[in-house]
Amino acid sequence: MILKIENVIKRFNNHLALDYLSLEVNKGEVIGLLGPNGAGKTTCIKSIVGLLSVDEGEIIVFDMKQDGKNQKIKSKIGFVTQEITIYEDMTAKENLAFFGSLYGLKKTELESRINEVAKIIGLEDRLNDRPKHFSGGMQRRLNIGCSILHNPELLIMDEPTVGIDPQSRNYILDFVKKIAAEGTTVIYTSHYIEEVEAVASRIYIMDQGHVIASGTLKELIARIKGDSHILVDVKIAREDKKDELLALTDVKEVVIKDNQYHIIVPGGISIIDKIVSILAPLGIVNVNSKQPTLEDVFLTLTGKQLRDEVN
Amino acid sequence: MLKFYILRSSRDIFGHLILILLPILLISFFSYINSSYNIGAITPVLTIGFALTFQIYGSAISFETLGQDFLSPIRNRLLATPVNPVKVVLSILFSGIIVSFLQTFVILMFSITILDIKFNNLFLILLVMLISVIFNQLFGTLILFLSKNVKTANSVTTLYGIAAPILTGLYFPLPDNIITNLFEKYLTPMALAQTAILGIIDNNLKNFIIGIIPLIILSVILFLLIKLLSKKVIL
């Protein structure tokens, strides 16, 4: 086992950021960490990396206790920060060289790793350019490159695709699949469920500081397979109608997004006529039902739509 | 690491232009308008005064880099590496000291080679300049660590950079009384450095010691304060 988090509590004044959080990561896994804003994902990641100390519980990384000072742990972890944390006034090569040197890489080894990593992140022709002239996607790739020079055994990626074009996003997702295939363990957080679906071998869903569900994509979807998802498009959605829908005994969850009501009801319950009668005054445009996805798992478990959290 | 930070500091061409060209222009200008007097006596004082003044502004080399690295998201990346963050802070301070001292050196060399000024015991003058550079870099860093804000550090050092040369009588003669005399010679770190250097130039050992010893003590105090604060600010 690469990582074991056991009953971890972390408080910021009166706010409980991690509430008896427990999770495990095995070697070679790609773990998708999902959760709305404030779920505790970033606190969890910072605690694993050693940037935050925990109040209670224990974090064991590579069979060593993470106390924030253990340099052996730090030297085996690569951390891709959510923000782009590179030096814009230094060339891509200088950035790679600097961060590589912080992990103890020297001259020949550093030089060869810079060339290898430049190829991996697709910047081999731009090594002598400064990142301020790069596109957002290229800066993101350099941001990742600076974290993998030392061949980390565990790569932690905190929202690595925020604000980039689809091409660069695909590049990064392919990169994650590739390094995972080579044996690197990855913890990947994202607001984009389809990204987690694409790369993760196992998924943890967090809310309010603890894990509310975990498993493979198939296992998670199986958990809510009994539910029906009804999508009703109306001309103008209203919040008070959501409350009316929730008042129906068989409605488990309702989320409004772009004039669409997403209603979750237990499978086999015939409730559509009641829903239609409540929403009819808003001008129903379309009524649909669909197969559950990871997004629906998230919605059912947290009552929130993940993508809305970033807007 | 030190090499990287020196390289980073050296990239700020605009900063170098201000911190080297501006004092050179000011020394030349004031030397010219005072050329009816004995230029051999005034220009060394102007050179020392402006070199010391622009060292104060040069303190930004360290604190701006520290701000970029430890008061921004880059902090998380740096702290995630196995490198001791104190080592990073020291590298930034060392690079700031080296770059600022080189700027001072260029200003002195300009006066020596172009304005044909002769300094006796140049080595000792450079030593005092170095201690003054160290003091200023530490001073800016302390303000940054206290305020946790680069803009505040910039404002405080700029204010000091404006006030200190006025109080040492660099721009215009001060009224001759006990208070202004104290400020002119002893009551600001810049005045202490100037007193020490003018002591070297005048072969006045007493002034040299009166200037240099408090400056060293102040630098040590600043270093200890920074060491105390750095854990709170960085970690």
Automatic annotation (TrEMBL), chain A:
Keywords: ATP-binding, Nucleotide-binding, Transport. InterPro entries: AAA+_ATPase, ABC_transporter-like_ATP-bd, ABC_transporter-like_CS, DrrA1/2-like_C, P-loop_NTPase. GO terms for molecular function: ATP binding; ATP hydrolysis activity. Residues 3-233 form the ABC transporter domain. PANTHER family: LINEARMYCIN RESISTANCE ATP-BINDING PROTEIN LNRL (PTHR43582:SF2). This is Fe(3+)-transporting ATPase. It comes from Clostridium sartagoforme AAU1.
